[in-house]
Design goal:
It is globular, with a radius of gyration of 24 Å. The protein is built from 12 helices and 26 strands. Strands 1, 2, 8, 9, 10, 11, 17 and 18 form an 8-stranded mixed β-sheet that branches. Strands 6-5-13-14-15-12-16-19 form an 8-stranded mixed β-sheet. A 5-stranded mixed β-sheet has the order 23-24-22-25-26. The protein is of the alpha+beta class. Helix 1 runs parallel beside helix 8. The chain is 27% helix and 28% strand. The protein has a domain of 102 residues: Glutaredoxin.
């Protein structure tokens, strides 16, 4: 049994705020020291914004929980100082195989192209993810960054005071109050903050249950994602097998709707199921067991005045597709640069409304894909099952049927089409780098492109002239000049120019494209900067 989730990493310590004669006001308070709350706090602290995390626990999550982390979130986490450590510890994979009964019907590669610093996916237990982020937060705090984690600080009540929020907090030493200019609710799917404000989700709960079992075993299965429809060991249902670090394997088994969850979680009932799948001779130990129900839901609005929701507190999807934690990290990536501009007085508060617009767009995209996956995995009628099984049969021999197979459309970054921060597209370039898109990485002579586009507005010029710096209404934009003549891989031209001979991109601090044109036009790019910061 891994002991990491038994060790306090941020134990309770009495804070001077608890001794103050009057209630202390803090810039940003974050509720929840899970992956999303930690990512938001680290991002804020790295940019000089005070971030206080309150958590009712003092250690990382029990059990592996989220295990699949996609390339885009890894790129974001690299900017936060944790991406490479996660890749080093994690299990890298990009091949998935789909089985029907006992036959492999097809396989896929998630990263068929070269020229990316990070892999398509890694598998890593959530407790390691949280451990990396907690240690990063402690490292920043030791270096004087304005970040702290207050363990065993449980929020009991939240009061909206208009220009701030009042929190009533319980601790081992008794209660105290704290004010927050901004409150970020990153407190998970059961979000107490959401409940305190009388808010709820809208969406679907699917009538099915899945058993999650993390088992420790020596096995010679390849490092791939294996998904079964109607396997011999779980007839009429589905199953999933994934490798994690430390000899831990994730197994998901579909159970159906009408079950006794507590009975199904008992080792005497779990172990026979696993033996039927793995074989009687395979030796394994149970590390963690849980049961989940598919849910595809979200809040109607993620921003409620001075309270902003992110991650599972704002939206939920089924685990197949790895869209939960991955989309939560992208929530914070979208939010923090906007919040910093508002706090610094460089953008109107209405800029935060675009967090709602863009991340609800992302949540709806994830919910749509997750719902479609769930409907394919668990057909709701006999005709739906007949159609699904026909697709699976055909996919074994015919390529046209394979895109119809849906064992979980795996997480990809969201493109913010239609965002009010986008300027009209004026470059006849690749579709993948249109305004609203996340910038794809490119290998350069001195590293990779994405780290050069982090935490600031950038004017990326490719074989085009432009000023080295532009200042527009308090926003400084610095130029990064590149040329396809210094690009032996041709990835820069392929991903950013296509058939065009030159291009100028305005890149947001979250590495999404705000505008692009074939050449620099000062008036139009100044307008694009104002638009990208919510001033037009």
């Amino acid at each position: 049994m891994n002991k990491i989730f038994e060790t306090p990493l941020y134990p309770y310590e009495r804070h001077p705020d608890q001794n103050a004669d009057t209630t202390v006001r803090r810039k940003v308070v974050i509720v929840g020291a899970g992956p999303i709350g930690l990512a938001a706090a680290i991002d804020l602290a790295q940019q000089g914004i005070e971030a206080i995390i309150l958590d009712d626990n003092d250690k990382v999550s029990f059990g592996s929980r989220a295990i699949c982390f996609a390339k885009r979130p890894l790129e974001i986490l690299d900017r936060l100082g944790a991406g490479k450590q996660m890749v080093e510890k994690g299990v890298k994979w990009d091949v998935g195989k789909v089985f029907f009964d006992d036959r492999k019907v097809y396989e896929f590669n998630l990263l068929p192209e070269d020229g990316h610093e990070f892999p398509a996916f890694i598998n890593l237990q959530q407790y390691y993810f949280e451990d990396h982020l907690v240690r990063r937060a402690h490292e920043l705090q030791a270096d004087g960054a304005p970040i702290e984690i207050r363990g065993n600080n449980k929020v009991l009540k939240v009061e909206d005071k208009g220009d701030h929020t009042l929190l009533h907090i319980d601790t081992p030493d008794g209660p105290y109050d704290l004010e927050a200019d901004w409150l970020l609710a990153c407190d998970g799917a059961g979000s107490p903050i959401r409940g305190m404000l009388g808010l709820d989700f809208v969406g679907r709960i699917f009538e099915d249950n899945f058993l999650i079992a993390d088992v420790i075993m020596d096995a010679d299965f390849p490092t791939e994602r294996w998904f079964w429809f109607d396997p011999p060991f779980n007839r009429g249902q589905s199953a999933l097998l994934h490798k994690q670090p430390d000899g831990v394997w994730r197994i998901d088994l579909q159970l159906g709707w009408d079950i006794d969850k507590e009975e199904e979680k008992k080792p005497e009932n779990v172990i026979p199921r696993l033996k039927e799948m793995l074989g009687e001779d395979v030796q394994f130990d149970l590390e963690w067991v849980s049961i989940y129900t598919f849910q595809c839901r979200r809040m109607e609005k993620f921003r409620q005045g001075r309270v902003i929701f992110a991650g599972d507190a704002a939206h939920q999807v089924s685990p197949f597709g790895a869209r939960g934690a991955n989309s939560g990290v992208q929530d914070t990536d979208n939010l923090v640069w906007k919040l910093k501009l508002v706090i610094d007085g460089k953008a109107p508060e209405s800029l935060l409304d675009t967090y709602d617009i863009e991340r609800i767009h992302g949540a709806d995209e994830n919910i749509l894909n997750s719902s479609r996956s769930t409907d394919f995995i668990t057909p709701k009628s006999e005709m739906s099952r007949v159609l699904r099984d026909a697709v699976l049969d055909l996919s074994e021999h015919y390529e046209f049927a394979r895109p119809l197979v849906n064992s979980g459309r795996l997480s990809v970054p969201c493109t913010y089409d239609g965002s009010p921060l986008n300027s009209a597209d004026a470059l006849d370039g690749p579709e993948r780098t249109r305004p609203g898109s996340p910038c794809p990485d490119v290998p350069l002579k001195d590293g990779y492109l994405l780290p050069k586009l982090a935490d600031k507005f950038t004017l990326l010029t490719i074989d085009a002239d432009a000023p080295d710096e532009i200042e527009e209404d308090g926003i400084t934009v610095t130029r990064l000049a590149l040329s396809v003549h210094d690009d032996p891989t041709r990835f820069l031209k392929e991903r950013y120019l296509g058939d065009a001979t030159s291009g100028v991109y305005l890149i947001r601090p979250d590495q999404h494209v705000a505008a692009r044109r074939p050449s620099f036009d000062e008036k139009l790019f100044r307008a694009a900067i104002r638009r990208a910061t919510g001033k037009e």
